[in-house]
Design a protein that fits this description.
This protein is mainly alpha-helical. It has 6 helices and 2 strands; from the N terminus they run αααααββα. The chain has a two-stranded antiparallel ribbon with strand order 1-2. α1 packs antiparallel against α5 and α2 packs parallel to α6. The chain starts with a helix and ends with a helix.
């Protein structure tokens, strides 16, 4: 039983390690997608970055970075937007949607980071658990009144970690879905004007 468990854990650890190597290049870049959309918005309505950025990014400055866009810069940006003849009421509302999109992006990037680092941790755990299982052939571990074989304990922990990873995959998929939907809606709204 222990040799099978050892092979399973070490093999899984090696497989996840190979996956991590390939995964680094495949991560989505939601920041790039938003930047392209912002650029499209600026071109469509003849706007400069210095006009749109203080409004779009205002809500993402923390209190410690309050000097990034001053109240005066934000006010000048609003005045410049109101003076723009191409912008109508509905188009100005797109700026608020950019803020929402940046909020979704931040959550999505957080989920990507968690998944990546958790997977690294999981890979390390699998290697360590595989090595431990090879030295603990059929040894039980007492937990309260029960004695559980170490192999079962290691596999139980592995299943728990897999469940956490699957939960993250599902949550990330849902967040990606809302992100892509919002990107497509905004792109359609920009092109419609």
């Amino acid at each position: 039983m222990s040799i099978d468990t050892t092979n399973l854990l070490l093999g899984s650890g090696f497989a996840i390690f190979i996956t991590l190597l390939a995964w680094g290049d495949q991560l989505r870049q939601p920041r790039t997608e938003i930047m392209q959309l912002e650029e499209s918005f600026r071109k469509e309505f003849d706007l400069k970055k210095r006009v749109t950025n203080p409004i779009i990014r205002k809500s993402y400055d923390s209190m410690s970075q309050s000097g990034r866009y001053t109240f005066l810069q934000q006010t000048k940006s609003v005045v410049a937007l109101l003076d723009n003849k191409k912008l109508k009421d509905g188009n100005i509302k797109l700026l608020e949607r950019f803020r929402k999109l940046h909020g979704i992006r931040l959550e999505l990037e957080g989920k990507y980071r968690f998944r990546y680092f958790f997977t690294i941790f999981f890979c390390i755990y699998l290697f360590i658990a595989g090595i431990v299982s090879s030295f603990t052939v059929d040894k039980p571990i007492p937990i309260r009144q029960f004695t559980i074989p170490i192999d079962y304990l290691l596999i139980g922990i592995t299943l728990l970690l897999v469940a956490i990873l699957i939960k993250n995959f599902i949550a990330t998929y849902r967040k990606e879905d809302s992100f892509i939907e919002e990107i497509n809606l905004m792109n359609d709204d920009i092109e419609a004007n």
